[in-house]
Structure formats: C-alpha cells, structure tokens
User: Fold these one by one.
Assistant:
Number 1:
Amino acid sequence: GENVEQHPSTLSVQEGDSAVIKCTYSDSASNYFPWYKQELGKRPQLIIDIRSNVGEKKDQRIAVTLNKTAKHFSLHITETQPEDSAVYFCAGGRDDKIIFGKGTRLHILP
Amino acid sequence: SQTIHQWPATLVQPVGSPLSLECTVEGTSNPNLYWYRQAAGRGLQLLFYSVGIGQISSEVPQNLSASRPQDRQFILSSKKLLLSDSGFYLCAWSVLGTGELFFGEGSRLTVL
C-alpha cells in the first residue's frame, strides 16, 4: 500500500521568508496529492492539491510541485505571515483512499 | 450545503470498556466515508474507509471496527478499549472520485 513520508517535522521561518515542506510517496499508481492545514484545536482543511497529470500548481502565496519520476512533491509558502503558523499535512493516494504524512509544525517567527 | 456531524466531542473511558463514535453527513448522497486517528507524532492514520453501505475497508489491524448502517452514517466501535486507543478521531467524507476530504470536528478519546 501507499506510504507517505514528510519532512521536516518542525520548521521555523522568519516572517516574510519562504517555507518549503517535502514529501515522498511509495505507490507509483497514486494520482492525487493534497495538502491540508490544521490550526490548533481545529479540523484539517484542504489548502491546495495536485493531480499526477500536472507538475506544478499555484494559488496566491502557496504552490505545490510534483515529480512523478522521483515520487516526491513539495509545498512552497512565500511571504509567510503569522497566520501561516499551523500543522501542515501532505497526503497521497488513488481510488479515494488517501494516506497522510506525519505532519510539519510550521512556526512563523516575528 | 453539505455538513458533517461527529459525536461525542470528548470521551474519557476506562480500559476494557466499549466505544461508539458516530458520524453523519448531510446534504449529499453516497459519500465516501473515512475514520482517521490523530496521535501525537503519528499524523493522520487511516483506520477505515467505506465507499458504500456495508462496504468497509480496514487499514490497520486493531481492536477497532467500523460499520455503515446507512448511506450517510459511519460508526467506529470497540468492544474493549486499550490505553493505546487514546487519540483524536476524525471522521471525513468525500465525493466519489474527487479525493478532497471534508473533516468533522473530531472526537478526543482518553483511555485511562
């Protein structure tokens, strides 16, 4: 089955700088790769996703890249702001079975 | 619009006691339904998912079970809880073929 690895587990960046979170997956048949943000005490919510027929997707300050050959994908957040502080989860899967990474706790430093 | 309800929100149970967590979805038909567990340092672990009434796929061998008695109802159960069952349980739904998960507010279970 699918296995998703996520790094780093914790990331601290200065406000205004960029943050990058990286994930790898094991199942070459996986075709859907979402990213979720979970603020303290709240449920995870989708922030961006990418399908295997696309290499890059951008939505304002966030972007995701996918390298199918290497089986890895990354989340990029530019011009970070205090409200970006949260836990971010990558995930991957197919046929509606979605497996999550262990999460990255992002701290935005003032 | 679609909504998902999950209860109870908080539960403290002794070791060896039974468990029942319930989840219902409104405003959609034939959703995919999921149970995830969130434990410290382990991310979101997929426990069960269902693509239809009576169709349950189990991902992790354990003393938990799931049932889907109705199209929009998903129940997580245990006959005898273990200490290791403590965690934050999240129910989620998705539209078949789209992948995007919509999570409930979660149930925090503490087993003592």
Number 2:
Amino acid sequence: NAGVTQTPKFQVLKTGQSMTLQCAQDMNHNSMYWYRQDPGMGLRLIYYSASEGTTDKGEVPNGYNVSRLNKREFSLRLESAAPSQTSVYFCASSGPRLGIESPLHFGNGTRLTVT
Amino acid sequence: ILNVEQSPQSLHVQEGDSTNFTCSFPSSNFYALHWYRWETAKSPEALFVMTLNGDEKKKGRISATLNTKEGYSYLYIKGSQPEDSATYLCAFISSNTGKLIFGQGTTLQVKP
C-alpha cells in the first residue's frame, strides 16, 4: 500500500520559474492538504481540499495555486517562484472526521530551493 | 491567531532514561489534539488522536495525557531507546476552524 506519494523529491528553481508538485493517495480519502515546513516553524497549511471539486485557502496561500484533479490527486503549483518559497513541502490526506477518528497521512516531502 | 507551543524545543537523553514533553494549546473551542512522530528523512506519522478531557493513550513505551480545561498535553517515553530519536509534533484542532494547527515540535535525541 503506497499511501501518499509526492513527486518530485527535490527541485531547484530560479526566481520566476514555475513548477507543479504532484500528490496522489490510494487510501480513498476525501480530504487532502498541502503544508510547508520551514526551520523554527511548525507545519503551515497552504491549501486544502475537503472533497473532490473543492479547494480552500489555508494559513499561507499567497503565491500558490492548487488543483484537485480527482479524488486521488491534489497538485500544488508555483506560478512564479520566489526565494521565500524555499521550503520542504508535504502533501497529506485524511479520512472522514479529521481529528476525531482520522489523523493526517503524509507523503515523503519535496525539498524545494528557489535561487 | 491560535498558538500551539511545545516545550522543550530539543532534548538529549541517555538510553534508558524516561522523558516527557509538553504541548500547550488554547483551552477554549477544543476539538481534538494529535501527536505525530517525525523521524529524519521520513514523513510525520500519527501516534495518537486525543479527543476527550482526561484521555490517556498508550502505544508501547509511549503514552500521552490530555487536559483540555487547562490546555495542555504531555507525551511520555519510558526507557528511551535510540530508535525513539525523532521530532515529536502536536497539532490542535479548534472547533471553530476544523483545521490542524501544528506546534514547532520537540526534537529528541537518545544517546546509546
């Protein structure tokens, strides 16, 4: 069982370049999330999708867009990368009733450097 | 702004020592609290989902308690082993927002 799969694992971009981070889960979860992890800070929510066809902003959405392509896939796009977006990005999914019954299941992360 | 604080930030113990760390969160609008374990070069994995005041959860040598009235949770590790070395994250869910707010984590290093 693969769980949550993220690609790529590493990426280096120049300022102004664009890229899409891909995420797929095979646990039939409705909810999917994108977080970023920066030194000295907790995981911060960028965007989430409570179900196929819906997306909502999290704490730090500026500079990002997302697409919930289907129930399995949730992608994160940087249209014009900036050095402030250098971070480790995690995709996660959860089953119904996040918090009460279901924790988050995380992918292995994407380490992005913007120069 | 909801604040979730974890202490200490880092901890070094000897193999066999027992240890504990704290997660503090807002005492109002409590919905749930999660603990995750995050090993280097891996992704965070859920340890406990805690929902009720007075909850106590246990998994092997690791246990957690919850006090929603005063807004804290403790994570205990009994007889620490080198394989317990990791960052331990707590995450609070408010009934207002329904979203997880993570603390900064406590990084534990267990020396053999």
